[in-house]
Write a structure and sequence with these properties.
alpha/beta; binds S-adenosylmethionine; seven-stranded mixed sheet; 281 residues; two-stranded antiparallel sheet; 37% helix
């Protein structure tokens, strides 16, 4: 569905399929830029600038900013909106198909203090967050507007309903905070759901660390593969180990043989990953 928009940006037709729910409230935009923790030392990657509404307050705080936008029809509007911002650059591309570390390196060089900020298109929230966390480890923070419900998932603890691979991935690498709740009415057009602006700050000292992070991430994904199955059943269908080995590994980290992935803490997943990697050697 496309919604026509009149006003200072002419007759732009919002593309629902691209998650184009824009923010116009100047006070809110300033607040979001402030909560993004951006300072004059920072180089910022923004995903989806839209009309450049958030780009401007970010650019005023940052050393420089590069914004990645998929919708080429926004470029004439962006060019006007950002004409007085010499430190802002807009690049055309799909965040899911772009090599983000190359983009950042080309735009800012290899020695920058990087932060990410975005009012994300909600149809790719999980994929974008996963990509940012795994491919831009140098980013000091990732501040993103997402669906409120997904924000709950990012904060979920073992035993909570939304606890799963996304919570574990985010909390493993970052300290996660809900910086601000934002009602649907603050967007144009308003989405069907309320939103939260979430601040993820990369951990300097990680409380727990898996010896092989790629293996750990594979384990977490596998452990939640079939939600109704027990951890042991998920493990034996995802890894080349038998039931007795899986039970031994689970018990070695202090868990009950019949437990489910939803009950396992990040620290226990780290130890379980080391244990199973050892069995598989
Ligand atoms: N930053 C603006 C604001 O806050 O008003 C717009 C945010 S809007 C929620 C999401 C933006 O992401 C839109 O401009 C949309 O065109 C863009 N977008 C959608 N999918 C994208 C993708 N795969 N890669 C890059 N940008 C995308």
């Amino acid at each position: 569905m496309k919604q026509k928009r009149h006003g200072h940006n002419g007759e732009f037709r919002h593309k629902h399929s691209l998650g184009q729910n824009f923010i116009e409230d100047e006070f809110l935009l300033e607040q979001l830029a402030e909560l993004s923790l951006v300072t004059k030392e920072d180089s910022v990657l923004e995903i989806g600038p839209g009309f450049g509404a958030l780009t401007k307050p970010l650019a005023r705080r940052a050393k420089q900013i590069v914004s990645l936008e998929i919708d080429q029809t926004l470029f004439p509007i962006l060019n006007v909106a950002l004409e007085h911002y010499d430190n802002a650059k807009v690049v055309h591309g799909d965040v899911m198909k772009t090599d983000l570390s190359q983009l950042v390196e080309e735009a800012f060089g290899s020695e920058c203090s990087l932060r990410v900020a975005a009012n994300l298109p909600y149809y790719i929230t999980t994929d974008v967050l996963t990509k940012l966390l795994l491919t831009l480890p140098q980013a000091k923070s990732i501040a993103v507007m997402i669906q409120k419900e997904v924000g709950d998932k990012l904060l979920a603890q073992p035993g909570d309903e939304g606890y799963g691979p996304l919570a574990i991935l985010c909390q493993y690498y970052c300290e996660v905070r809900r910086a601000l709740d934002v009602p649907a009415a603050c967007f144009a057009p308003p989405p069907k759901v309320d939103s939260s602006f979430m601040a993820l700050e990369r951990r300097m000292d990680m409380p727990c660390r898996a010896s092989d992070e790629a293996y750990f991430l594979r384990l977490v994904k596998g452990a939640f593969a079939m939600r109704r199955k027990t951890l042991v059943n998920n493990l034996i269908s995802c890894f080349p180990i038998d039931r007795a080995q899986a039970v031994a590994a689970i018990e070695a980290v202090g868990l009950a043989a019949q437990c489910r992935a939803e009950e396992v803490s990040i620290e226990q997943f780290c130890r379980l990953s080391d244990e199973i990697a050892r069995i598989g050697e």
